[in-house]
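About this split. The held-out portion is used to measure sequence recovery: a designer receives only the C-alpha cells and must propose an amino acid at every position. Recovery is the fraction of positions where the proposal matches the reference. Here is one held-out target exactly as it appears in the evaluation file.
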C-alpha cells in the first residue's frame, strides 16, 4: 500500500465511500439547536444568525512527516455541509455565541479542484481509486471510529473583542473527547448578515487519536492538523426578539 493511502488514517476528518452509513446532521439536532438560540434571544437581546454552508468554506490540512516524508502526500479536506448558528449583541462581540456541527460523512477528502487551488505540495492529482481507499480506511475503528463518533462540534465558551477582531474560547469535541482552546477571529457585520474567518490548529493525540506511522516512524502523519474557515451568516427568520 502506498504511503499516502495510509498516512491519513489517523486524521480526524473524512467521508467514507463504501463504509457503513454514518448519519448526516439530523434535522432534529439542527432544530433543537435553533430552538435553543431562539429561546436565548428572548432572554438576552441579540441577532441570531444561521451559518450558511453554501456561502462558507471550511478547509482542513494534514501534513506528511518522518524521515521519508517525501514519499508521501499532504492532504486537504473540505466540509461542504454543516449545521451552525451564532448570536451577536447589538454592538461589539462581548457576549456573542456560536455553535458549529459537522458530520464526518459530509466531509470530502482531496477534491481535485481544492487540491489544485491550494497549490504547492497539495496540487498533485490523486486517483479516484486511491482517494476512495483512503476514505474507507479513515472512518474505521482504527481511525476515526465514525460509527461511534459521527460528529465534530465546536461551541463557544466566551467571546471578547470589538469589530473587526475577536478572541473566542471554544470547546472542540472530536472522537468523544472535548478540549478547549483560544481562537482568533476577524468578523464583521454585512448587508446580508455577518462574516467571520480564522484558523486554528489541533493535535490528533489530544483527542485520543494516534497519528499513523509505519516503519518505526520513517513515514508518519504529523500530529498537528490545520483548519481554516470562512463563515457567512444570515438572520434566522422568526428568531429575533
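Reference sequence for scoring:
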Amino acid at each position: 500500500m502506498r504511503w499516502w493511502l495510509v498516512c491519513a488514517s489517523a486524521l480526524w476528518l473524512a467521508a467514507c465511500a463504501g463504509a457503513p452509513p454514518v448519519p448526516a446532521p439530523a434535522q432534529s439536532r439542527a432544530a433543537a439547536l435553533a430552538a435553543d438560540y431562539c429561546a436565548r434571544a428572548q432572554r438576552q437581546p441579540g441577532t441570531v444568525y444561521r451559518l450558511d454552508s453554501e456561502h462558507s468554506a471550511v478547509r482542513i490540512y494534514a501534513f506528511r512527516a518522518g524521515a521519508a516524508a517525501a514519499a508521501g502526500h499532504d492532504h486537504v479536506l473540505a466540509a461542504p455541509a454543516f449545521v451552525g448558528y451564532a448570536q451577536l449583541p447589538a454592538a461589539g462581540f462581548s457576549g456573542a455565541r456560536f455553535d458549529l456541527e459537522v458530520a464526518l460523512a459530509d466531509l470530502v477528502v482531496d477534491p481535485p479542484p481544492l487540491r489544485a487551488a491550494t497549490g504547492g505540495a497539495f496540487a498533485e492529482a490523486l486517483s479516484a481509486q486511491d482517494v476512495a481507499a483512503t476514505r474507507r480506511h479513515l472512518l474505521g475503528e482504527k481511525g476515526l471510529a465514525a460509527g461511534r463518533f459521527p460528529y465534530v462540534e465546536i461551541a463557544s465558551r466566551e467571546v471578547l473583542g470589538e469589530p473587526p477582531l475577536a478572541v473566542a474560547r471554544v470547546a472542540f469535541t472530536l472522537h468523544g473527547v472535548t478540549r478547549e482552546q483560544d481562537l482568533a477571529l476577524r468578523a464583521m457585520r454585512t448587508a446580508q448578515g455577518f462574516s467571520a474567518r480564522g484558523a486554528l490548529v489541533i493535535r490528533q493525540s489530544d483527542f485520543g487519536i494516534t497519528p499513523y506511522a509505519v516503519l518505526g516512524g520513517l513515514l508518519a502523519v504529523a500530529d498537528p492538523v490545520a483548519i481554516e474557515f470562512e463563515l457567512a451568516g444570515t438572520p434566522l427568520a422568526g428568531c429575533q426578539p
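Annotator remark: Residues 1-25 have pLDDT under 50 and may be disordered.
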